[in-house]
Amino acid sequence: xxxRNKEENMVRVxxxxxxxxxxxxxxxxxxxxxxxxxxxxxLCALLRLRLxxxxxxxxxxxxxxxxxxxxxxxxxxxxxxxxxxxxxARSRCHVIAQFNRGLYxxxxxxxxxxxxxxPPRGKRKGPAPSKGRDPEYSxxxxxxxxxxxxxxxxxxxxxxxxxxxxxxxxARAGSPGTALTLALxxxxxxxxxxxxxxxxxxxxxxxxxxxxxxxxxEGLRYRCRDAMRSVTKQAVKEARLxxxxxxxxxxxxxxxxxxxxxRDLHVLRHDKPLHPAIVQPHLRHVPDxxxxxxxxxxxxxxxxxxxxxxxxxxxxxxxxxxxxRGTGNPLQSFTYARRRRxxxxxxxxx
Length: 350
Known about the structure:
Blueprint: E1 2-5, E2 10-13, E3 26-32, H1 36-48, E4 55-60, H2 63-75, E5 81-83, H3 89-100, E6 106-110, E7 148-153, H4 160-167, E8 177-183, H5 188-197, E9 208-209, H6 221-230, H7 233-252, H8 255-260, H9 296-299, H10 330-333
Helix pairs in contact: 1-6, 2-7
């Protein structure tokens, strides 16, 4: 709601109301994960098995987590854009504009806010938490994301207000939407505050449990571990530096060019792989035996039922008297036909 403050003669934006109750178009789901690995495993299954349809916003707590999740998705061939306060304002606006136009389907965003007061002067270990960040940045406020189908709280928000702003990016303009929160045991404190604030008229929490068969996706666990091992702290650090340098270059040096050539602006993409981590190509493809039987038609829509390979009949040949059918590889056809060599003139009988 927007109101006019006559005394200060300025526009004041009031905080939004809490999400509507169970009768709304927003489904709020909750999955309690036993550990960090289970979080990544569930997200991998949702994306690679095509359980998520439409555009998705993935919210994390800090920029390092943002790039770790982006690099993790790169291992599985899932393009995603990073959106955080360390990027230039023009780059952030361009990411959102292209997302609304349908160029990207997945954004990994942070909603962290700079501290209210600067830290005291003196020696301190580690980098400053707000160094290089835009003090006016808040990705969940004042940004119009269009046609968002699902919001995933990969990290539980620290405040109820942050949760409301996150899930408010979906189920807009009369369209349905889903908000899924993945919670670890150490995140139960902030989760309890959110559940207490979002209580329906009947006294029940609006966050309904999300049911997923962990046994059905257990086959993806070793692939998830390989991807997590590849995304090291050094890889995350290099990805942050590379992304910031590239976006600064795109934002400053190409500004004049794009002003003169606005049609070429769509060529600039933000979901390109960063590749500071070791990319394992085999993770991009999910074999059929790892896909649960009930999801094989969904996870791979182009999958066609293969005809069973039958061994060739004895003496059966193609037209023209060519060699028997089959690949000749006993590991593929389970048959092996030895080719007889033609006798050379004067060769002794076998």
